Amino acid sequence: MSSPHWQPDILGDGYRQHVLDLGADPDGEGRIVAVLVRRDIQPGETVHGAVLYVHGFSDYFFQTPLADFLAAHGLVFYALDLRKSGRARREGHTAHYVSDLALYDTELDRALGIISAAHPGLPVVVLAHSTGGLITSLWLDRRRAAGRVPPVAGLVLNSPWFDLQGKPSHRGILTQLLRVLAKIAPFRQLSTLPGVYGQTIHTSGTGEWDFDLTLKPLTGFPVTVGWLNAVRRGHARLHRGLDVGVPSLVLRSDRSDLSGVYSELSDRTDTVLDVTHIARWAGCLGGETTVVPIPGARHDVFLSLPQPREHAYQVLGSWLDQHGLSTRPAGDDKPAAEGGITPAAS
What we know:
Layout: E1 7-8, E2 15-24, E3 31-39, E4 49-54, H1 64-72, E5 75-81, H2 105-118, E6 124-129, H3 131-145, E7 152-158, H4 168-184, E8 189-190, H5 197-201, E9 223-224, H6 225-239, E10 248-253, H7 275-281, E11 289-294, H8 306-322
Parallel strand pairs: 4-5, 4-6, 6-7, 7-10, 10-11
Antiparallel strand pairs: 1-2, 2-3, 3-5, 8-9
Helix pairs in contact: 3-6, 4-6
């Protein structure tokens, strides 16, 4: 494997990116790339392992406090913007479009190979949010089936998308329709009601996070037939049971509000996914799975209000410690996040 060429990243000092050329798009939208982002190791930091972070739909990596927290626990941080997503989207690309979630294995395997080459022999924790949680769970199951679990040693899922919202009868009808439509009009956009999640986290609304609205629009990118069909196929595979091959931690809010109307409740609930689905299907990951609801958390638990956010960091730090995946400075018995968390810059 050739040495990666690291360039300055949009996050500024301390972050670099490497563009992964993936060649021709299997879905026919020209050439595609993925972008691996690295947080530079700072003076005095020790490295005990590494993290590979994977974003969700209508998202990209910008959560620098999360990277800082993990670095304080001895984990060098990498994040992957998947094909047609975030930093990796190019002109002519349908945002986040893919016809089969297994296609992401290409960039995930390449990113893991780069991390392993840079830190040989060290364990890697895969950390993923929302749709990324579904994508990485399926990927790790395929790696385990092929006898390729190492160097991955743990999986942390932040509000993973494990099922479609809505009534079971409606989900079934929609899934059948998607199978047909995906064959004849895969890029057709589905009309969806804009949610309130974006305004709860961005500085233009009630949030404290400043991110690039061209990479992560407040109301999200349009959902396409082919992409949602790929997700539903992924859900079906998950529901039959996976074995990701490593211990898993699943973090989620304690309640959902899918009304689509902003209220004070919107800042203290998951306004994107039904958390009962996460609770129901988490057992399908196989092996040791720890599920922790975070009271008052948002969809991204690490972008929650300060109190639930600190709770989420405490749970993550404890889980890493329990599984031998973390180091802390001598005498420090509190997670690094308790010292205060600074919102990320775009």
